[in-house]
From TrEMBL:
This is Endospore germination permease. NCBIfam families: 2A0309. The keyword Membrane applies. It comes from Bacillus bruguierae. Belongs to the amino acid-polyamine-organocation (APC) superfamily. Spore germination protein (SGP) (TC 2.A.3.9) family. Its main location: membrane. It holds the Pfam family Spore_permease.
Amino acid sequence: MKKYAYNDITLLQYIFLINGMQVATGILSLPRVLAEKAGTDGWIAILIGWAFSTISGIFIVKTSARYPEDTLYDILIRLFGKIVGKALAVIYMIYFACYSCIILVNALLYLKGWLLPKTPDYIIIFLFSIPTFIVVRNGPRILGRYCELGFYMMIWVPVFFLIPLKEGGSWLPFFPLLKEGWKPVLAAVPTTIFTFLGFDIAFFLYPFLQKKQYAVHGFVIANTLTMLFYLFATLVCFAYFSPDSITEFNQPVLNLLKVIEFRFLERFDMILLAVYLIVVSTAWMPCIYCAVFCSSQLLGKQDHSSHLVVLLILIIGFIFWTHPSWNQSETWQQAISNAGLGLTYISPIILWLYSWVYEKYRQGGIH
């Protein structure tokens, strides 16, 4: 009998879980950050970031395929033994807990900046925690259904990005391509690291996937959906704003949508930001699940509900104590990006190589 049969997820849920964990608040400021680094050639950095994340993700799936019934925790114990394996699992647990906290902080700051400036920080995070507990405590299957529903609910959003282009915008600043060479573009690539983070959830999802033979295909589709969304939003922002003016807006995507007005609705950006919280929640919920899954496995518990409550209380307490600002958020985000570079991009390749050597040595020992 399969170890995780009761929590099977479909291929679509697998795709939308990976895509949902990647697409969060990073898109709102991404065009500005890319423009600061590489001007209108910044969109090329998204393609390079997509290539790197796809390669690392394939290594994740290939490593998981060697041990189809094992999650990341089980693989680490199998390859490195209990002491080292558990120590590495603790590192991943802390990483996912901090990453989910950063996403929640960003969502909080956007919500306070645009919709609820007078509401206390901890109240907003507490309200976020209620649906988070309800969804996450039920495991990957419910998480997958939630992410799939969230994707279908928000699939109409990109259409509205095209409305401002009717009134203005030009594609001329894009040409000639690579105006200042490859150096600025390559300098902008690290900024895409944070926006593509999250695909390492494939380590946790693989044992639950029903059709494991399509795991690589599903991952590539999920990562490509993320890339297309980022690329589309960035190109539209670059076309609408001039190369100089886009750097003056902290969140050019929201400023772009602020232009949209209907006879029956003026502040469309407010409505979209409120609805976009569904998309952001599909990032922090799976991330919190990965953190509490690691902690429950470390303590040998099957039910992670109590761990989930503790983590949410810790996050609320952290927000209450620190009252985070935009500058603090950017500092923490940079730290998580640096950690993600090692844990999400580099370690899967090392883990795959180590597992290959381990299997060769084990088979040699048997014979």
